[in-house]
Design brief:
β4, α5 and β5 form a beta-alpha-beta unit. This protein is of the alpha/beta class and about 525 residues long. It starts with 5 loop residues before the first helix and ends in a 6-residue tail after the last helix. α9 packs antiparallel against α17. The chain is built from 21 helices and 15 strands. Helices cover about 40% and strands about 15% of the residues.
Length: about 525
């Protein structure tokens, strides 16, 4: 049952002729497998097969395939009229409707048809593999094989094991996915698996900031794109569809027994109730005129450079980054390295520009001599340290105690240092810092609970949803202590379960650096 050679000696069967199913067929065909495609809807499989072959012909026209590749794929593809025609398959991958009862019924039907050594795989993105296999005579051959859309282009496959899944079955599917040119990661069957679980804070933090009226969707998106993400959360939710995104969040929330960390957003529910579903309805956070792109990008104001003297305090990596950008900008400054224990800050006249640590600017400005205080977000984008070309949006805020003159000076300095400053309300953790800290925290809990390992989490998030880095790469960059400290500050401010620090992350703050 677990010999990978069986997958080449006998056909691979795919059930479901939708976008995901046809994508899986394409990948399997081009990897050299005979493939049988079945769909319960009359004529759907045949139509999908013809469309797929037309797609392959277009790829050949563009030089991405040879005519011989297309002809060979055509010869290996067969449309099945009934489930019984799948009896000789070594592997069956279902890509049908996300309904547990329907998938369970299909698995029971297949078990009565296929050979005892046939592996039954589900492309489910959210349902429990343990539940899908329930009631089967041989539940150990059921495994999750979760592809990402579009299947031919997205490299990640989550290989998901339920309680009964035989390790040898999961290993064989892992090897097969790699044979198909994918990067496979093992995952335990828990709500959301790896990607859909760890990604929840990416949307949730922006939705929380919108509910607090911290900034507009355009400003929040600009800040997140400035950190290297291809799309901001608002535009990505518009693309996915708010009904779909809300449903996934609701599913993960319910499956985790209403853990507040996964609580859905009132902002998004209101949008769903109002039919503002994103691109597919013509309006979400942005309006989508027919044939046009989204509108509403954040605007950037310009101002003259500050005349106040600049003194850089601190010796850590952020101080070095600021020093490099100050030197490249041509702004005159002095550096005070005498107090290594002092918190890094850029002194602008009598005011202070500091990195967010999760506390509000108002709280930090309450200390003596700190009234003129501004905070900036974690600068994690791809721009070079010495770059002064404004390419990277960066959130910042000023304490309510700060003078208008100082706030203007702080924005001028950030712009001179090569950022596009985006002012937001005085909220704890600003935008990128709280988002990345929560992604790290969620990934830490996933590893703590055996859902995946750290390498699998990083691979899943970079390949499955195109994050610019994995959560543990960010953790290595910012450190466990700074990340946990920021989360503790958020927890102290909001007083709920949402920002509790993962036990794994907390332990990392106590361990020596080499052990982290």
């Amino acid at each position: 049952m677990t010999n990978i050679n069986l997958f080449r000696e006998r056909p691979v069967a795919v059930i479901g002729a939708g976008v995901m199913g046809v994508g899986i067929v394409q990948v399997a065909l081009l990897a050299g497998h005979p493939v049988h495609l079945f769909d319960v809807r009359e004529g759907a499989a045949a139509a999908a097969a013809e469309q797929l072959l037309a797609t392959l012909a277009k790829l050949a026209d563009k030089g991405k395939l040879t005519p011989e590749d297309v002809a060979a794929a055509r010869g290996r593809l067969r449309v099945a009229a009934t489930l019984a025609e799948l009896r000789d398959a070594a592997l069956v991958i279902e890509a049908i409707v996300e309904n547990l009862a329907v998938k369970q019924a299909l698995m029971r039907d297949l078990e009565a048809i296929v050979a005892p050594d046939c592996v039954l795989a589900s492309n489910t993105s959210s349902l429990s593999i343990t539940a899908v296999a329930r009631g089967l005579a041989v539940p150990g051959r059921v495994v999750g094989m979760h592809f990402f859309n579009p299947v031919p282009l997205m490299r990640l496959v989550e290989v998901v094991s339920g309680l009964a899944t035989e390790p040898a079955v999961a290993d064989a599917i892992h090897m097969l996915a790699q044979d198909w040119g994918k990067t496979a990661v093992h995952a335990k069957s828990t709500p959301g698996f790896i990607v859909n679980r760890i990604a929840r804070p990416f949307y949730a933090e922006t939705l929380a900031l919108l509910q607090e009226q911290a900034a507009t969707p355009a400003v929040l998106d600009a800040c997140v794109r400035g950190a290297g993400f291809r799309m901001g959360p608002c535009e990505l939710m518009d693309l996915i569809g708010h009904d779909t995104n809300f449903a996934v969040t609701q599913s993960v929330y319910e499956a985790n027994f209403f853990d507040k960390r996964y609580q859905p957003s009132l902002v998004q529910r209101e949008m769903v109730d109002g039919g503002l579903l994103g691109r597919k309805s013509g309006r979400g956070f942005y309006r989508y005129p027919e044939g046009g792109a989204k509108t509403g990008d954040a605007e950037v104001e310009t101002a003259p450079l500050p005349a106040a003297p600049l003194v850089l305090h601190g010796t850590d990596a952020i101080a070095d980054l600021l020093a490099a950008r100050l030197a490249a900008s041509g702004l005159g400054f002095t550096r005070d390295d005498d107090s290594a224990s002092a918190e890094t800050r850029l002194q602008i006249g009598d005011g202070h520009l500091m990195l967010t640590d999760g506390r509000c600017a108002a709280e930090r400005a309450s200390a003596p001599g700190m009234a003129d205080l501004a905070l900036f977000d974690w600068p994690v984008g791809p721009a070079a340290a010495a770059s002064t070309t404004p390419v990277m949006a960066l959130a910042w805020t000023a304490a309510p105690q700060a003078s208008a003159e100082f706030a203007t000076q702080a924005a001028e300095v950030l712009r001179a240092l090569g950022w596009l400053p985006q002012r937001v309300a005085d909220v704890p953790g600003l935008v990128v810092a709280r988002t990345i800290a929560m992604l790290v925290n969620e990934a830490s809990d996933a590893v703590e609970q055996g859902v995946c390992d750290a390498a699998g989490a990083d691979a899943a998030m970079t390949l499955g949803v195109n994050y610019p880095a994995g959560p543990f790469a960010w953790l290595a960059l910012w450190g466990a202590a700074a990340t946990a400290h920021l989360l503790d500050a958020l927890d102290a401010h909001y007083r709920g379960e949402r920002y509790r620090v993962s036990p794994r992350l907390r332990r990392a703050t106590w361990a020596p650096p080499a052990a982290r």
